[in-house]
Amino acid sequence: MTTPPFDIDAFLARPLTARIATDGPTVRPVWFLWEEGAFWILTGPWGGLFHRVSCDPEVAFVVDECDVATGAVRQVTARGRAELVPFDVPRGRRKLVRYLGMDESQWDKRFLDYLHEDPEQRGTTWLRLTPSSLNAQDLSYSVASCMRGGEAGG
Predict the structure, then answer these.
(1) What number is the average pLDDT over the span 20-28?
(2) CATH assignment of 8-139, among 1.10.730.10, 3.40.50.300, 2.20.28.10, 2.30.110.10
(3) CA distance linking residue 102 with residue 38, whole number of Å
(4) Which residue from 1, 28, 109, 147 lies 20 to 30 Å from 119 (Cα-Cα)?
């Protein structure tokens, strides 16, 4: 196994938006939590993701950044079989805090409902992806070398 080009855990600890691809193909943006070597995504029977994974659990997943101001271009890609597992509120809180901040009084009510309503009654579920493959790439570039006459070159 080769050494990754950057700290994958630190990268995945950032509140980045990922994209998950299912059969169809269907690709959608998601918030996620990276814990215990798995990606955790909140879902339930109200959403297409829940139904697609129920029918075909093979998914592809990407978390990336592209900052044209700094030239930072990094990505983590994963593939594997997703599982639908029971929702637990403490993990749900950790996930939402990373995107919405610590002050729950500032959150939109729909996010609070995930934490304060009965997950079984609501149908709230985790999609857990423990990757069978996980790859990191650093495609960063020097901004100065791409600038021509004050405009980004391409």
Answers:
(1) 89
(2) 2.30.110.10
(3) 23
(4) 28
